Amino acid sequence: MEKTITSYSLKGLNTQIKDLDTNSRQVAVYLSVFDVIDSDNDIIRRGAFKKSIQERGVDSGSNRKIAFLRYHDWQQPIGKFLELSEDEKGLFAVGQLSNSTLGNDTFEDYKDGIITEHSIGFQYVKDKIRWIDDETKEAGGFFEVSEVKLWEGSAVTFGANEFTNVVEVAKSEGKTETAQKISTEIDLISKALVNGKGTDDRLHGMEMKLKFLNAQLLALATAEPFTKHSVKSEPQDQQPFDWNKVITNL
Question: What's the rounded mean pLDDT across residues 219-230?
């Protein structure tokens, strides 16, 4: 099986912040994890980021080091990475948040628990991907990724993406859990809005996110669960079609 390789790809990770030092404004996170099949049917192996870290990492001499961004936007740097390394779990990073307006807004989002997701911007390396047949997996296998070109790691607000198919979730056994998760995130944003910290752009963004989450919660509450029923049909006598009856009822 072949994989479509674009010039720039994104891959997200929903995870809790490992640590946030409010005094130094440093945050420790995992940008990627190893040995887990993701939504792209990829498994990233340990060592995949090694070359990028050597060439563009914190201690490299590159003038285009791996960037610490918001929303993968190169016009929105929020600080710089102080550490990038691989361990048994994945790609570990320590980021220093800047004192810029965007850096301050991001710092408040970390403190309020609004940022829980991180994502990487990267390129696949063509000869470092191979398809592994595995009939135990839903797709019949997976892509094993042994190397990528890492360009940036981004902080992203917890996810619109996560709930785009909320109605489909409502038709499964995960309805209660999803409702609880949305409710928790609504509570987080509500508290952050009451605190009123950050710029007008930050507060406006939270208001829009709150409206989105409320709409998703409503969609989840009103969606009917889908259950398959097996219906036994009884044979019936075929009656001739009465065109006269149809014309009379017109």
Answer: 57
The pair of three-digit structure tokens given for residue 49, joined into one six-digit string: 């980021």
In angstroms, rounded to a whole number, what is the distance separating the alpha carbons of residues 83 and 81? 6
Q: What is the mean pLDDT of the chain?
A: 81
| CA distances (Å), origin 14, targets 32, 71, 206 | 9, 14, 19
pLDDT tens profile 29-47:
999 999 998 878 899 999 9
Query: How far lies 207's CA from each of 76, 159, 195, in Å?
Result: 21, 14, 13
The token pair that represents 233 in the structure block: 């049909």
Token pair of 13 as six digits: 């990770």
CA dihedral 191, 153, 98, 53 (to 10 degrees): 150
Residue 194 has pLDDT above 80, yes or no: yes
- pLDDT above 50 (res 246): no
Strand partners, 32: 91
Q: What is the pLDDT of residue 34?
A: 94
Residue of 3, 10, 4 lying closest to 156 (CA atoms): 10
What stretches of 45-129 show up as alpha helix (H) in DSSP?
Answer: 50-56, 101-111
Cβ atoms of residues 97 and 172 within 8 Å: no
Which residue(s) pair with 80 in the sheet?
96
Q: Can you give 41-54 as a three-state secondary structure string?
A: CEEECCCCCHHHHH
Which residues face 149 on adjacent strands?
Answer: 123
pLDDT-derived band at 231 (thresholds 50, 70, 90) equals very low
- Spatial separation of the C-alpha atoms in residues 106 and 32, rounded to whole Å: 20
- Token code pair at residue 100: 């810029």
pTM of this prediction? 0.72
Amino acid at 225: P
Cα angle value 23/59/127 (rounded, 5°): 120
